[in-house]
Amino acid sequence: MTKRMFSKPFQWLTALPLLVVTGALAVIALGTLAGAQSPDARWRERLFDYFQRLDPADGEAVENFHLVLIDRESVDAVGPWPWPRTVLAGLVEAANAAGAKGVVLTEAVDAPDPLSPETIGEFWLSGARDEVFAQQLALLPRTDERLAQAFKNVDGAVAVSLTAPSDPNRTSAFQRTDTQHAGWLSASGADFLALPAARYFYAINPDLAAAARPAVSSLATDSDGVLRRTPLLWSLDNRPAPSIALEAARLAEGDASVTAIVQASAASAQGRTVHSLKLGEHELPVSETTSLRLYLPKSIAAPTTSASRLLSGFNGAPATIAGSNPQLKDTVVLIGLDTELGAPVRTARGSISPAAAHALAAAQILSGEAPTRPGWAGYVEALAVMLFGAAAIMTAQRLQFWQAAGFAALVSVILMLGAYGAFAFGDLLLNPIPPAIALFLGAFSVAGGKSIGGVLRDDNLRGSFHDTLPEPAMKRLREDAGSELLKGVRREITVLACELRIADEDLRTMENLPDDITKLLAAASLDLRQTIIDAGGAADQAEGGRLFAYFNAPLESADHAQAGCAAALRLIESMDKVNADLDASSRTRGLQIHLAIGIATGPCFVGPMGHGRNNRYSAVGPAVDRATFLRNQSEFYGPAMICDEQVYKETHHHFAFLELDKLKLRGETRPVSLYALIGNPFIKSSKAFRALDDAHRQLLASYRSGDMAAARASLEKAKSSPGAKIALFDIYEERIKQFAEKGVPQGWDGAHTAGV
After folding, report:
1. Which helix (H) or strand (E) holds 333?
2. CA pair distance 286, 622, nearest whole angstrom
3. Residue 91: half-sphere exposure toward Cβ, Cα within 13 Å
């Protein structure tokens, strides 16, 4: 109710942040759709890293692969890196002698060996004085040929293109690739594939390329330096080339062929894009750039042997017996630098050597387990941004700010758990972050609308109720903005209905001064309203000279019935002062304003009712109707403060009351008693009131029993009491006279029908 009161004056203020947030939601949705497959979404990728740590891949890290790492011990035995490729050839031969299923050299060989006789000879030939010595060096056997000779006896691969020329995880890196002459690869009927481009750094020795398959060793990290995905197929000089990981997996499967399954509906100028790769019986989903998303097991430690163990008698090292490295048997051996000598690779699970990264990716290829981010994920997430953002806005309209924020947080947690469940049980990578941001934006937009119009609206609220609510309630409004205080409630309240009346003869006397009469009533009403507010009640100005006062609202009060009676006595005192001022003026001397008051208590609906300047704090309910009825009865019983039974029961021990009558009302099953509030506790304890009260009680007892003679005697006694000149006794005198003449009606219970 309170939220709607001032919606029209401040509607544009509330709509402004909603429009801004709607635009922001649209931007987020479009950004989510556009960057659905981009590796630059750091928060999304880091969330996926966290999912991977919570639910790592099944199984051991590496079962079919073994690392031979060139470490500090090996360098101490051979000499500083880089080594001549004749030493690398010795490592290949030692691995073969140990029973390796295949050997992969992960250090790039597409550049001249800086320690080969050929390279040294070229240096001397180009600048040295001893040309004879240079020519003799150039005639020595080439180290590349020595390495090629080592690979002729074992299936293997050598690394090339250590650094790709562009980001391979973007489709802009595609190159047209002819697959017709690649015996190890079939492309399910597609002659040309769109693959990420790689190139030789310099060139590779033809004999070495014939003996060992060139495999791309590039490991492209994301913009934050973390390796999360690696392409498995490359375009090398417009021909397909495997990555180190794919070639190692091929060798582990017995030199199995690879089938590239293309997307039937996806093609570009460069050729068909790949949907998945099939190696033997394993089909592995990949992105359109053929990238495999790394999914690491709980333990990423791979079996490792120092290269020094395979160096048989090199540079004075002790000879190693062939076959003395049984840990290499039936495995694919990957030879490379360790993390001390080479640059480590950062992954979601820590830093490892490049050779270990290739081995882990190869093991994942064989397992066939790879989380995928389907193409429809971006559309679903963009739609979720708009739906959840709209839901948050609509929900926040009905909730307080912290409730809306809590709702957004709860739904965000549910989204996060749902995304984690999709990863853990379906290997699907869904991003809950954009919908979660939309939820909070939606909730905060409503808060923003409230904040922008809040101060002005609260000032308007306080201004509307400044002459209506008591100071404690206004203080709460100033401090808490009234968000809870001015909510409509159903509550037990005490209603005081009062009306200013001027006798007909006084009105006739001043009929030539209408402006004076209206100003007089307005000033008297203002004075009464202020008296009600000072007494702790909420004042409600009705038509004419009528006012209502509500106690126990908006602030709760346990003794609201007592507060209503005290306020009525203060109103009488205030009216006495007004009449004294009237009598002191020559223009209004002799004019008297009478005050009729009715007090009732009961459950009512109470709260602000209206809009803008016409807003008022009011109540609706039986107690309001009953107080109005009692106020109207004062015209019959004489100027009096008339209360209902409930007010009397709750306050008769504190105030002085006289029972007026017992009436039969429509809608009531039994007669109800009316009571006149006579005065404060001092009057109640006075000797004169006690005498009047005793005589009045005897009068009512005799009257209701039908003994009119005894009632007449009690009436005379009551009328002789001090302060007994009231209209009530004239009413009973007339009733006793009629019943004495006509007799008491049959079934008489002392009750009269209202209005008779």
Report:
1. strand 332-337
2. 74
3. 28
Quick one: pLDDT at residue 6?
41
Residue 228 reports pLDDT greater than 80: yes
The SS3 of residue 465 is coil
Residue 701 tokens, joined: 């007892």
* Whole-number average pLDDT of the chain: 84
Alpha-carbon distances, residue 559 vs 374, 430, 654 (angstroms): 68, 60, 12
**pTM for the predicted model, two decimal places:** 0.60
Percentage, residues of the chain above pLDDT 70: 86
The three-class DSSP label of residue 554 is coil
Tokens of 426: 């379906």
Average pLDDT for 553-557 = 91
Distance, in Å, from the CA atom of 176 to the CA atom of 271, rounded to the nearest integer, reads 6
* Predicted pLDDT at 76: 86
Contact, 289 vs 170, CB < 8 A? yes
- Listed residue (317, 316, 299, 297) closest to 307, CA to CA: 317
Residue found under tokens 């009469």: 517
Among residues 644, 654, 634, 648, the alpha carbon closest in space to that of 726 is found at 634
Cis peptide before 554 (omega within 30 of 0): yes
User: Alpha helix (H) ranges present in 400-534?
Assistant: 401-426, 433-464, 471-480, 504-509, 514-534
Examine residue 285 and say whether the peptide bond preceding it is cis (omega within 30 degrees of 0): no
Q: What tokens does 653 get?
A: 């021990």
pLDDT digits (tens, 9 = 90+) for 115-148: 666 665 555 455 555 555 555 545 556 788 889 9
* CA 163 to the chain's CA centroid: 44
Q: Of how many residues is the chain composed? A: 756
DSSP annotation string for 569-589: HHHHHHHHHHHHHHHHSTTTT
Q: Mutual orientation of helices 377-396 and 433-464 as an angle, nearest 10°? A: 20
Q: Treating both helix axes as pointing N-terminal to C-terminal, what angle do 401-426 and 433-464 enclose, rounded to 10 degrees?
A: 170
pLDDT at residue 633 tops 80: yes
Contact between 231 and 290 (Cβ < 8 Å) = yes
**pLDDT for 322 beyond 70:** no
pLDDT class for 643, splitting at 50, 70, 90?
Answer: very high
Report residue 67 as tokens: 């690392």
Q: Is 720 helix (H, G, I), strand (E, B) or coil?
A: coil
User: What would the two tokens of residue 657 be?
Assistant: 């009351």
Q: Are the beta carbons of 191 and 182 closer than 8 angstroms?
A: no
**278-298 tens-digit pLDDT:** 887 778 888 888 889 998 888
Lowest mean pLDDT segment, chosen from 342-351, 607-616, 643-652? 607-616
Residues 206-217 as b/e (b if ≥16 CB within 10 A, e otherwise) read: ebbbebbbbbbb
| CA 104 – CA 349 distance, rounded (Å) | 24
